[in-house]
Design brief:
464 residues; alpha/beta; Rossmann fold
């Protein structure tokens, strides 16, 4: 049974994690001797027994933190990035606890380098080991070993798509034993196991790891009965409702004071921790960039003032977070008499001044938006904001357009670095990428977009 295999695998995880932790501790110890030219065993009278106790304590702490970060569960159908994230979380918790301990012991200066080395060595060792194990297990599953046997209870509009997913991913190691329903369905290509009345007898004699309940609207009255049978037999089950077939976006289940709630989208920036992290990044980076580019901005401001009449800064109403309007700043790149023209701009736009064409080509006209970021009505990275007129137009004709207002607008975004910038590109394609960014946000994703933005501005042939 797969549960027994997972138990054995967890024991292996614990043993190897302990070995990795021991190895990282010993390597960190010798690094400390090399950096400080200090023989700790002599100076602090550490005998072999004490040293082993210290190693055992650190390894135990690491394993406990691994448990708390959910590292000893099955990651069979989970992306490796999530497993790596949990490894880093566990390592950071251990690192923090150990730093607090050495601060209390007044040894921070001597131990901070070894502790940092331990964190990186242990995390790297764990990632390498789990990547090797994941690929090895996938290889075994592709050969027919370490299978997870599941049954399908009911047939609805999602069933065929689910079966196709399982059949196209043999490395996941799932095998569908068959299905139960009121009547057989020849188009499924699976073994028909009988009606729902035969389920209890089947579970009593056949090895089953998990059940998938996919009831049609007509079969909904059987739900309580099927759940009761699975619970009575100790079989893990999941429910895929018939209505999910009509939803194009991902579905998330959360809790509202103990009541399960289904959400159409997961927005990481709804979480306070993520929101604060992104805001701190915006404040720090925008402040540094304002200081860094201040000579350039002053120079551009002077040239704009000397070469054409009108204001230096162009202010325009845009729609931001939660559909609230705000004033966005840009260096004026067009002649003053065209300021009321809200039509989209093009390459070599005749309305632009000479300096305007230059600053638009290298996106220098966007630099004043760093002050929007500092004020808090924009972010460095996010969907580009539109003027109210276009928002009202697009919301009528472009599906899911208003979803982009779930987060703060940005100076640059995932759509822009994928060459979807300007009114001559598909607004529908831009919205798809904006929604992808909203649902997959992370600090590393923001950093990636910022680096890609620099590359696009200075090295892309299509920069404008």
């Amino acid at each position: 049974m797969i549960k027994q295999n997972q138990t054995k695998l967890n024991i292996l995880h614990v043993v190897i994690d302990a070995v990795i932790s021991f190895s990282a501790c010993i390597a960190s110890y010798y690094l400390m001797i090399w950096v400080f030219d200090l023989n700790m065993l002599t100076e602090y009278h550490y005998d072999a027994k004490t040293a082993l106790l210290v190693l055992f304590g650190i390894a135990t702490l690491q394993i406990l933190c691994n448990f708390s970060c959910d590292l000893y569960r099955s990651y069979r159908s989970t992306r490796f990035a999530f497993e790596v994230l949990n490894i880093m979380r566990s390592g950071l918790i251990v690192f923090t606890i150990m730093i607090i301990f050495v601060i209390i012991m007044s040894r921070l200066y001597q131990y901070q380098i070894p502790l940092m080395f331990y964190f990186f060595a242990n995390s790297a060792g764990s990632v390498i080991y789990r990547l090797f194990l994941r690929n090895f297990l996938r290889y075994l599953r592709s050969k027919g070993y370490n299978k997870k046997y599941i049954i399908i209870l009911g047939v609805n509009n999602c069933t065929e798509r689910f079966i196709d997913k399982i059949n196209s991913s043999p490395t996941l190691g799932y095998e569908i034993a068959g299905y139960f329903d009121a009547a057989p369905h020849s188009k499924l290509g699976l073994q028909y196991l009988g009606t729902f009345k035969k389920l209890s007898a089947y579970l009593g004699k056949s090895p089953t790891d998990e059940a998938l309940i996919m009831l049609s609207d007509k079969s909904q009255p059987y739900l309580d009965h099927l759940v009761a049978i699975c619970d009575n037999r100790g079989i893990k089950f999941s429910i895929i409702p018939n209505m999910f077939s009509s939803f194009s976006s991902r579905i998330y289940i959360s809790s509202f004071d103990g009541i399960p709630v289904m959400s159409m989208r997961k927005v990481p920036l709804d979480k306070t921790y993520n929101k604060v992290t992104k805001r701190l990044l915006d404040i720090i980076c925008s402040s540094l960039l304002i200081i860094l580019f201040s000579p350039l901005m002053i120079t551009v401001a002077i040239i704009i003032k000397l070469t054409s009449p009108g204001k230096i800064i162009f202010r325009q109403q845009r729609v931001g977070l939660n559909q609230k309007p705000f004033t966005m700043y840009k260096f004026r790149s067009m002649r003053t008499e065209t300021e009321g023209d809200i039509s989209g701009t093009e390459k070599n736009d005749a309305r632009c001044t000479k300096i305007g064409l230059f600053i638009r080509k290298f996106s220098i006209d966007e630099l004043p938006q760093l002050f929007n970021v500092l004020k808090g009505n924009m972010s460095l990275v996010g969907p580009r904001p539109e003027i109210p007129y276009y928002v009202n137009e697009y919301r009528k004709s472009v599906p899911l357009y208003m979803v982009k207002h779930y987060v703060k607008p940005g100076i640059t975004g995932w759509a822009q670095v994928n060459d979807l910038r300007g009114n001559d590109t598909s607004i529908s394609e831009r919205i798809k990428l904006d929604i992808y960014y909203i649902e997959h946000w992370s600090i590393t994703f923001d950093i990636k977009i910022l680096l890609m933005t620099v590359e696009k501005i200075f090295f892309s042939k299509n920069a404008r």
